[in-house]
Design goal:
Number of helices: 12
Radius of gyration: 25 Å
Oligomer: single chain
Shape: globular
Largest sheet: 9 strands, mixed
């Protein structure tokens, strides 16, 4: 389960036509054919136009979803929030009278909006995300001034801004083990602006295991875990040597600093690679490849091959996504999509799992246990330093071989200051395609997690001479067994 207040995963919304528990098909949460809205956008009731109430806010905006961007206008009234899509661009065909009328709009009651959060879009602080039940709406307002105007108007209308614990308090809660590793990573992703609504800013999670070929796996063995002190690109010594050699041969330029990696560990392409078998991402992948699936040899085929690619290829340094730790569905080809045949004559179907996982559910369960293991808990702060912390940028990132293409970092370019429309659009495309580094949350080394404490278990029955409470050490990967560290051996009735 996701921590309370986290952005809901988009695939938690039922697809159009999916049967409900009662047997009746639910209303489609997706934009219907011919709609000006991108596929995948949940929408409220349509309206014939804006209401005539006095507006608290009325500005052009972009409605951002996993399927794309809809241009339009956002209007906030006393009790409603309304979005009107802009008319489609002129085409050679004639439009009907209905199409020439006002563009369709969507209307939400403010009482249905749970809370809001400020967001980045294309590395600029110009967006806001609104949470409604199990879905979320992501709007880009083009400028920070307009975003702040909408935020203030929503606050005056009674919509609360989510109160997030201070980073210090959040980190202390994780250190005290009040938050699991999964929950803490989700919170860090949320605070840094990652969202399920924008594939370019999808939540990022680490590879935690490196053994995907053994028949069995012992999570108590530190040797099966990935080194969390290094970025993915530095895990393989031979590849790292090539990366550093290429870096040294680059000429530093004022407008383009040197970098270790031209690809990024999190991008829209990486998310679609992992979620290929899960709608609506299947459709998005087809759209990305001009109406067809990519070549079978380039698709997500097996965990072992994916790990090998991410640790050997100069062009592949992908990290994982949250679904690897809670959702087995994306590992199965339940839609029976024809994904093609590889050059080795193997058909691409369900993801090939490691031999130690007997099913997709088994893999997710073991993988989640690995994430919460003592080995990962002991080193997770090092990975946080690389992704969200002081090793993300600057000299520390250079020393850790953790520098990416400059357009992946916030502040590298101010799109609003670029006067030429063609150049501005080219920069927007580059920012969207190269991936986006999360907002930096920590500028000093992240503290480690505190060790787990012995568990006090009450003894309800025992022979004479046994104390009322015995200190019993639970099974721990550190000692490889469930040794009793107390004064005597507890007996159970």
């Amino acid at each position: 389960p996701l921590p309370r207040g986290s952005p809901p995963p988009p695939h938690s919304v039922p697809l159009a036509g999916a049967p409900s528990p009662g047997g009746e098909p639910p209303p489609s949460p997706l934009a219907p054919p011919g709609s000006p809205f991108p596929p995948g956008i949940p929408y409220a009731s349509p309206s014939d136009g804006f209401s005539h109430e006095a507006a608290l806010y009325d500005e052009p905006c972009e409605w951002v979803s996993r399927g794309g961007v809809a241009q339009g206008r956002l209007r906030l009234a006393r009790d409603t929030l309304e979005f009107a899509a802009s008319p489609p661009l002129p085409s050679n065909r004639q439009t009907t009278n209905d199409e020439a009328a006002d563009p369709p709009s969507r209307v939400w009651s403010l009482s249905d909006i749970g809370h809001l959060q400020r967001r980045r879009y294309l590395l600029m602080h110009t967006a806001v995300e609104l949470f409604i039940d199990s879905s979320a709406l992501f709007f880009n307002l083009h400028t920070k001034r307009k975003r702040e105007a909408l935020r203030r108007a929503l606050r005056r209308a009674g919509v609360d801004e989510r109160s997030i614990k201070s980073r210090h308090a959040l980190t202390e809660a994780w250190q005290r083990r009040e938050l699991s590793n999964f929950e803490y990573l989700m919170e860090l992703n949320t605070i840094s602006g990652r969202t399920f609504n924008d594939l370019n800013q999808y939540p990022v999670f680490p590879w935690v295991l490196k053994d995907y070929s053994s028949e069995s796996i012992a999570l108590t063995d530190a040797g099966v875990y990935r080194d969390l002190t290094k970025p993915v690109g530095a895990l393989n010594k031979e590849r790292l040597a090539q990366v550093l050699e290429r870096y040294d041969q680059m000429e530093a330029e004022a407008d383009m600093p040197r970098f270790h990696y031209g690809s990024h560990y999190s991008s829209a392409g990486a998310v679609l690679f992992w979620l290929l078998r899960l709608e609506p991402y299947t459709s998005y992948s087809i759209d990305l490849q001009s109406g067809r699936f990519d070549h079978a040899d380039r698709l997500f085929f097996s965990l072992q091959e994916a790990w090998a690619s991410c640790t050997t290829s100069l062009a592949d340094v992908k990290e994982l996504i949250p679904e690897f730790f809670y959702l087995p569905d994306f590992l199965r080809n339940d839609g029976h999509f024809q994904l093609g045949v590889r050059q080795d004559e193997r058909c691409v179907g369900d993801v090939v799992l490691p031999p130690w996982a007997k099913s997709a559910e088994d893999f997710i369960a073991i993988h989640r246990r690995a994430l919460e293991s003592e080995t990962v808990s002991d080193r997770l702060h090092d990975w946080v330093d690389l992704i969200f912390g002081f090793k993300q940028q600057g000299p520390a990132a250079h020393d850790a071989a953790n520098l990416f293409f400059y357009l992946t970092y916030e502040g590298a370019v101010d799109l609003q200051s670029v006067a030429d429309p063609g150049e501005r659009e080219a920069l927007r495309t580059q920012v969207a395609c190269f991936g986006q580094t999360p907002m930096q949350l920590f500028t000093s080394p992240h503290p480690p997690r505190r060790p787990s404490l012995p568990f006090l278990r009450p003894v309800h029955w025992g022979p004479p001479g046994i104390a009322p409470f015995a200190r019993v050490q639970l099974h721990s990967p550190r000692d490889g067994g469930g040794r009793n560290t107390g004064g005597g051996e507890a007996k159970r009735a």
